[in-house]
Structure formats: structure tokens, C-alpha cells
Specification:
4 helices; 10 strands; alpha+beta; four-stranded mixed sheet; 222 residues
Length: 222
């Protein structure tokens, strides 16, 4: 990740900026928050269940190096862009994924679907922004995934949650709450400082006005 800057990891991205970022991610390789796929098909229950597993696992896993963004990059093999084909327009594919997630995973996971064309190769990505609602759980059975199943990624491997993962979920929620509380305190302090500066400025102005009125005028001795 040393070749990817902090400023690049943020939403919203325009297509050109995201394309450049993801090409760097492809070169970096799969990680806890990056999964590569050669193709994306959602014709069967098995294929749908596999994608739901991957999306939920990326959402449930943490890697501060990626600011907890997850990426499923489609059209990649062995860290190389090979391209693929999409049978649906991006808006229709986004709607299908949203509907799947809504029906099978809770709480809902936000995703952003993008399709690119680089040097004649069509490829795409599903971006999973940081979530404050982990763990995300299967709420209905689909293929071999069952209600109550929770998945995480360990390195490049996706597997079911273990008991030791739950303290991490709790700690992440606590960290998020603490961060938000600190930000609120910081904002309140800034507002108080602004009020204080305004009061001091007002008192100074009033003091100068009073001083000006009380200064005796010089007599004209001409």
C-alpha cells in the first residue's frame, strides 16, 4: 500500500480517479480488504451466495491501511488485469446486488458498483465503504449459506467468524463511538472559543467607545 496515498482512499470517487486507484490495488495484490474475481455471474443461487459471502466478509473485516474500504475487483487473474464481460448495465447490476444484500444480509451493506474500460479491457469493481454496523449476518438461507452465518477475511482467506472475532467487533464499535465523541467535544470547544473571541472583541470595542466619549476635547485658544 506504500504506493497508494491517504488522499486517494475516500468516497466519492469519480470514475477516472477510482480507475487509477484500483489499478494500483491490482498491482498490490489480494489482502484482507481486496478480493479478485475473473468473472461475475449471478445466474444461480450458488453464485449469489458466494458474492454475498464475499461482500459480508469484506464488510466484517478491518484493515486500517485501506481505511476499512473493501474492494471486489472483477476481471483480474494473478494480479493482472485480464478483462471480463458484463451482461448487465452498471445500474441494473447495482440494483440486483442491492436487492440481494437487502434480502439476505443484515444490517444492510452499502456497495458501489463501477465498470471500466482500460486499454480495451472491460473490468469492474464492487466497493464496500467502511461500516459501523458489523457484524453483518446472513438473515435467510441461500444455497449452502444459512441464517446466522457470519463471515470474515483472514488475509486472503474467507471463513466463518470465530469467538475471538466478537471482541474485535465490540472494540471497533467502541473506537468509533470514542472517535465521534472526541470530534463532538472538539467542535464544542471550537464553538466556545469562537464565542469567547466574539465577546472579547465586543467588550474591547465597547471599551474604546466609552473611552472616546470620556476624553476631554482640546479647547480652541486661538
Amino acid at each position: 500500500m506504500e504506493n497508494i496515498t491517504d488522499e486517494e482512499l475516500h468516497l466519492p470517487w469519480d470514475n477516472d480517479t477510482l480507475e487509477k486507484l484500483l489499478l494500483k490495488v491490482v498491482q498490490t495484490g489480494e489482502t484482507t480488504k481486496v478480493d479478485f474475481k475473473q468473472t461475475l455471474n449471478l445466474d444461480t443461487a450458488e453464485q449469489k451466495a458466494e458474492l454475498l459471502k464475499d461482500i459480508s466478509a469484506l464488510a466484517n473485516s478491518y484493515d486500517q491501511a485501506y481505511y476499512n474500504y473493501g474492494f471486489i475487483i472483477i476481471g483480474v487473474k494473478q494480479n493482472k488485469l485480464i478483462g471480463t464481460s458484463f451482461t448487465q448495465e452498471v445500474d441494473h447490476l447495482q440494483s440486483q446486488i442491492d436487492e440481494l444484500v437487502k434480502n439476505y444480509i443484515g444490517p444492510f451493506i452499502t456497495t458501489h458498483v463501477r465498470i471500466f474500460n482500460t486499454e480495451g479491457k472491460t473490468w469492474g469493481a464492487i466497493v464496500i465503504p467502511p461500516t459501523k454496523n458489523a457484524p453483518h449476518v446472513f438473515i435467510r438461507d441461500i444455497h449452502n449459506k444459512h441464517r446466522g452465518d457470519i463471515y470474515v477475511r483472514r488475509g486472503t482467506v474467507t471463513e466463518k467468524v470465530l469467538p475471538e472475532d466478537f471482541p474485535r467487533f465490540f472494540r471497533h464499535h467502541l473506537d468509533e463511538y470514542t472517535y465521534e465523541l472526541r470530534q463532538e467535544i472538539k467542535d464544542v470547544r471550537s464553538e466556545l472559543e469562537e464565542i469567547k473571541r466574539n465577546l472579547v472583541s465586543k467588550e474591547t470595542s465597547q471599551s474604546l467607545e466609552v473611552s472616546g466619549r470620556n476624553t476631554p476635547r482640546e479647547k480652541n485658544t486661538g
